[in-house]
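Bit of a strange request maybe. I'm writing a small parser for structure token strings and I need a real example to test against, not something I typed by hand. Could someone generate the tokens for this chain?
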Amino acid sequence: MRLSEPRLTPQGEADWDQEIRPYINPWNRPESEVDNIFKTLARHPKLAKAWMVFGNHTLHKNSLPEREREIVILRVGWLRQAGYEFGQHRRIGLDIGLTEAEVEAVAEGADSPLWSDQDRLLLRAADELFAEQCLGDDTWAGLAAAFDTRQIMDLHFTYGNYTIVSMVLNSLGVQLDPGLQGLPAGPPPSLRPAVGKTTHRPARPRIPPLGAAGWDEETRHYINPMDEDEASVFNVFKTLANHPKLTKRWMIFATYILRKTSLPPRDRESAIVRIATLCGSDYEYGHHGRIARDEGVSEADIAAIVAGPDDRHWNPADAAMLRAVDELHGDSFIGDGTWAALCERYDSHQLLDFIFTVGNYAMLSTAMNSFGVALEDGFDRLPGVRA
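Reply from user aminoacidic:
Good idea to test on real output. This should exercise your parser:
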């Protein structure tokens, strides 16, 4: 565990919002049996409700088979050194048929002799998404031979959701629930996330955008609520339309992050542009660079966001906010000094919204990279300078 005590105290049942109670305790268990992650998220009901619709998709309504899903989640927990996440999914993995030896072998990765060829493919995919924020051509081809398009999309969003969860659990210091065992023994992984663009970027879309003729009515409502001409709908949405159930559930969470968050718009967009830069995502940088400018972020600010928190442009508070993005990208954890600075800037709702925002756009940047979603004309690409 990164921290020996929580930075945000889990909320007791007496303080639970009535609207959030069915989400965090649907079986009406005694408070002592409700997991610490849910008692912590109970502090921010609006965020919790929006995220749990998406989280429920990745855990319970995923098109990936259970075994494959849990191998990916456990590998994310190991790579991001999220003891709580690994402990919870050790239990879930054992319940769905993984062996104790296999759970421990997740730390060894694809080199373990315990794994089948398909297991190794999944472990390599998780490693590439972690290190490069994009799948290489060989790994993509292997997945395309073994899984259908919706399963590949679910793999990316499962990886991404549990990246968000790792960042939250680590940074908030959520403590293991009774009876759970954390990370396997041994040294931490040597693999580290790259910064900026890498060579692993497809030259053309790997998942073709779906035209309006292929949209069902519910998907149409989410991706084109104003009933605009098809050409006006962005490629991100036309790509996600290939998986309507995922799209609808993620959009509830994404709408909260973009439209209903407690973060000031300038901070939200600065954090998004920074994580897009770190993930080397032309698509997210282009779109949110434009939104940032609309929210009053200057050209000088944008250039300094790309340069990073040590740029002379920043005052100490803004530098700390950007440094928190860098720490979440590089270590899935906000360090003590940076956390203290954030606590001077944000209340508890804003602290949670900040981490979930960075995590959501790390997930989306990685998916857009790996899917090869084409940036529309008229949007800026990442500049050549790297952080």
